Amino acid sequence: MSLLSEQIQAISRDKNIDQRIIIEALQDAVTAAARRHFKSNENLIAIYNEESHRMELYAAKRVAEVVVSPETEVSLEEALQADETAEVGDMLYEPRQDRFEELGRIAAQTARQIVVQKVREAERENIYNEYIGRVGELVHGVVKRFERGNIILDIGRIEVLLPRSEQSPAESFSQNDRVRVVISQVTKDAKGPQVHVSRTSPEMIKRLFEMEVPEIYDGTVTIKAAAREPGERAKVGVASNDPDVDPVGACVGMKGSRVQAVIRELRGEKIDIIPWSEDPVVFAANALSPAKVSRVQITDFTNQRLEVIVEESQLSLAIGKRGQNVRLASKLVGWNIDIRSDAEMKREVASQFQSLLSRPDVPLADLNVLNPAYAQYLQKAGILTIEELAQANVNDVAGILDISFDEAVALIEQARQLLPPPSAELAPAAEDAPAIAPGAEPTEEAAREETLAEDARPEDAARAALTAEADATAQRADDLTADAEASAGEAGLNESSPNSAALPVAEADAVNNDAELSPQPEA
């Protein structure tokens, strides 16, 4: 075996490149060096002889019936002398080995540069093809050096780049530290393929759980989604393919041993393990853990927006520190999440409801408090608005809806409560009253109406006047009776004047009769 063959095999082993690629690179390098050195019009071609393990130089000529350019063409007669099977249009290779020996040091240096370049390009292509299919894979590396905040890691055959943006703020490394990283991307740059790795990618936490949880490695438990804020908190959505296996418990492990191993690798990053669900409403409620969610509803399916209602006491917990909890939950679910407190929602609904009911002609179908079936039957019977329902007959409503009398009363009372206050209905009537400009004399009609208004007393005042007049009459009767009794006593003492008390007594009886005929105040 020649020295050239040994060198080809050594390069192939070191660079992990196929020998055929190296041989083609050598052939191209010698061909270019020969053409540059001899500067002839001949089509010189270098070919590697695998039997002798040597490079050989040839001049390629095309077989032609009529030779126009002797340096690139050969006649059919001459070609048949060299090869009996030659035909017009075939390529004939004439040896130029004697000229190969004339190649000097400059030609050899040119060939070397071309070989190095070709081998480097082949190596880059080989690395790219190898690592482009390993994106997302967890690898081990050793910190080699630092370049402007970036870290260069040696992962075996090549060096990879850990950018500053892919480093967790809670971590710091020193030279020769062993680091676990995940391959994030592979690019083709001018200097060759560049393999980028990451410590902040969600794939990192997935690969770490695969190493620590056997159920994930064998496919029993699947990590459906993951979201991280590196160095602070992460959320992982897991599902089980076996109904007998609890996905959350499998990831947590006995006394939290499995998840604690992942937390230690991530330098204390907190991890929430969430049961995954196909329903985004259920998944969002779970993702907001540890907050307790009251209600979740889809507000915009096209733009994937959810509205989450929580109690006032759970609002700060659901939002999290600087909005971290809801931000991670939104990334995990893949929907935009709007969080509102239950009290705020009630206030808004009440405000909208009051705004809706500010008009008495509100259609029954717009009232959420009314059964839609009731609204439909009432509308068919001609009761179209809330005001008409409030003024409807109880028996009619009970008959239309086929409900009990008490239920009809309650329904009508509810409609009356929803009506605007009476002041809102009486306010427009004041606009119809004639207005008198300041300083203007009232008209005769206005003065007459004012006099009648002053003469007209309320019912309570009339009753009070009658009561006072009756009391005065009764008191006068009592006084006359007392005077009569006193006169009668004097008559008993003085029998010589028997008729002296007759007149007072008769007058007292007349006064009493007047009191009985006086009108009594109404009860």
Q: Could you explain the architecture of this structure?
A:
By secondary structure, the protein is α+β, with helices and mostly antiparallel strands. The chain has five domains: 3-126, NusA, N-terminal domain (N Utilization Substance Protein A, Chain:P, domain 4); 135-198, Nucleic acid-binding proteins (OB fold (Dihydrolipoamide Acetyltransferase, E2P)), CATH 2.40.50; 210-345, K homology (KH) domain (GMP Synthetase, Chain A, domain 3, 2-Layer Sandwich); 361-423, Orthogonal Bundle (DNA polymerase, domain 1); 459-517. It is built from 21 helices and 15 strands. It has helices spanning 3-15, 19-38, 76-82, 97-100, 105-131, 202-212, 214-217, 247-252, 257-265, 280-287, 315-319, 324-333, 342-356, 372-380, 386-390, 394-401, 405-418, 422-426, 444-455, 459-493, 502-517, and strands at 43-49, 54-64, 73-75, 91-95, 138-147, 150-154, 159-162, 178-189, 192-198, 221-229, 233-240, 270-275, 293-300, 305-310, 336-341. Strands 7-6-5-8-9 form a five-stranded antiparallel β-sheet. Helix 6 (202-212) packs across helix 9 (257-265). The longest helix has 35 residues, at 459-493.
The geometry reads as: elongated
Report the count of strand segments.
15
Strand content: 15-25%
Low-pLDDT sequence parts: 423-443, 450-463, 484-523
Largest sheet: 5 strands, antiparallel
Give the oligomeric state. single chain
H/I helix tally:
21
The CATH topology label of the largest domain is GMP Synthetase, Chain A, domain 3
Structural class per helix/strand content? alpha+beta
CATH class call of the largest domain: Alpha Beta
Number of domains: 5
Helicity, in percent? 40-55%
CATH H-level superfamily of the largest domain: K homology (KH) domain
* CATH architecture field of the largest domain: 2-Layer Sandwich
Nearest-angstrom radius of gyration?
A: 54 Å
Mean pLDDT: 77
Cα separation of the termini:
139 Å
